[in-house]
TrEMBL record:
Organism for this UniProt entry: Moheibacter stercoris
Keyword Cell membrane applies: no
PANTHER family according to UniProt: 3-OXOACYL-[ACYL-CARRIER-PROTEIN] SYNTHASE 3 (PTHR34069), BETA-KETOACYL-[ACYL-CARRIER-PROTEIN] SYNTHASE III (PTHR34069:SF2)
CDD domains attached to this UniProt entry: init_cond_enzymes
EC number(s) stated in the UniProt entry for this protein: 2.3.1.180
Name of the protein in its database record: 3-oxoacyl-[acyl-carrier-protein] synthase-3
Domain annotation Beta-ketoacyl-[acyl-carrier-protein] synthase III C-terminal: ranges: 285-363
InterPro entries membership: ACP_syn_III_C (IPR013747), Thiolase-like (IPR016039)
Domain of life of the source: Bacteria
């Protein structure tokens, strides 16, 4: 017999203060010593007004990803649940501080409870946070543990500082090419943010407060149909395949920004919304759900550019959610990848808008090679 699983507490950690659009290059630096020509256009389209960086204006890092994650997890601890009560820690991120050891192991090391616990790390892109949540959810549901902490986090700023791109610019100069960073690389400098969010999952709801019961979490991948759209540690080839960093020389790692996070914006525009609608329709059919029963729709989007298009694509497959049901915070906190859905859910929980019996729909796209997840939560 499986257990019901409840989100009994949520937490967000955003490092330092909000950074305005005009301040971004004060923190990230100037590539080739010049202001970006693409920045204004990208910001106008994505609609992000402020974001957070684990950086100061001197380019010094103020937090590691593991420390950012630990801060969100610590926000879950109280008189009813201390770090000594934690049985499982499941963490998802795109931007771990190192290739090995695992990110969750590093977070466990920062938290330093007095006991050994099970740790799980999910690596990938935006869905890595939901993968981490799913592992925690299934562990509690199966009765393997009574509680689990799931977290999503990013420290993208460390990938986006100007020095990471200057080697490529110098190489382009030597080749007498136009000395700018390719748009597919620069695009993401103005999209991404740092931060973390965490949920406490338990097999019983807490009394005298609102809890969110997880009804299901579904995942869909379209990698069998589509090539990679967002990638790092590799370079896309003419046939759409990815050539691994391990197949390049160490000089090429710098000159071609092999480790930079890149986005094929052509593929993004063509498929991200269409496949998102297809996957969500499949979940609604699988669980025999009525879209009218959803009270809040929390869709992770990378840019406000996609807002209207996403609603239209959903409506085209019979999922016509009224505008007033959609809940976003992208403009205020930026795109925090694997952490975004945790953070917006935490904000909704603390907004005072939720009432018992309401249903919350979570939708998370991942453009890496077009993977999607969704979940339904019931307020109880």
């Amino acid at each position: 017999m499986s257990n019901e699983v409840y989100i009994t507490k949520s937490s967000t950690y955003l490092p330092n203060g909000p950074v305005s659009n005009d301040e971004m290059e004060d923190y990230l630096g100037l590539v080739n010593g010049k202001p970006s020509k693409a920045k204004a256009l990208i910001l106008r389209n994505n609609g992000i007004k402020t974001r957070y960086y684990a950086l100061d204006k001197n380019g010094n890092f103020t937090h590691t990803n593991a420390e950012i994650t630990a801060k969100a997890v610590e926000g879950l601890f109280d008189d009813q649940f201390t770090k000594e009560d934690m049985q499982l820690l499941s963490c998802g991120t795109t931007s771990a501080d190192q290739i090995q050891p695992s990110h969750a192991s590093m977070v466990h090391g920062v938290l330093k409870p007095s006991h050994s616990i099970e740790v799980n790390t999910s690596m990938g892109l935006c869905n890595s946070g939901m993968n981490a949540l799913n592992y925690a959810y299934l562990s509690v549901k199966a009765g393997a543990v009574n509680n689990a902490v799931a977290a999503g986090s990013e420290r993208f700023s460390a990938w986006m500082t100007a020095d990471k791109f200057n080697h490529e610019v110098e190489n382009l100069k030597l080749l007498e090419e136009k000395p700018i960073v390719a748009f597919k690389r620069e695009f993401l400098r103005w999209m991404l943010s740092d931060g973390s969010g965490a949920f406490l999952l338990e097999n019983k709801p807490r009394e005298n407060q609102l809890n969110l019961r997880i009804e299901f979490i579904d995942f869909y991948s379209y990698a069998h149909e589509l090539e990679a759209c967002m990638y790092s540690g590799s370079e896309k080839q003419e046939d759409g395949s990815l050539k691994s960093w391990a197949e390049y020389s160490s000089d090429e790692w710098l000159n071609q920004s092999i480790f930079a996070l890149k986005q094929d914006t052509r593929l993004l525009d063509e498929y991200i919304l269409k496949k998102g609608a297809q996957s969500l329709r499949a979940s609604f059919d699988k669980h025999n759900l009525d879209p009218n029963d959803m009270d809040f729709v929390l869709a992770h989007i990378s840019s406000n550019y996609f807002k209207d298009g996403l609603r239209e694509e959903f409506a085209a497959v019979g999922l016509d959610f009224p505008v007033e049901k959609w809940y976003y915070n992208l403009s205020e906190v930026g795109n925090i990848g694997a952490a975004s859905i945790f953070i917006v859910t935490d904000e909704l929980i603390k907004s005072g808008k939720l009432q018992k019996g309401q249903k919350v729909l979570l939708c998370i796209p991942e453009s890496g090679r077009f993977a999607y997840s969704c979940a339904v939560l019931t307020v109880c």
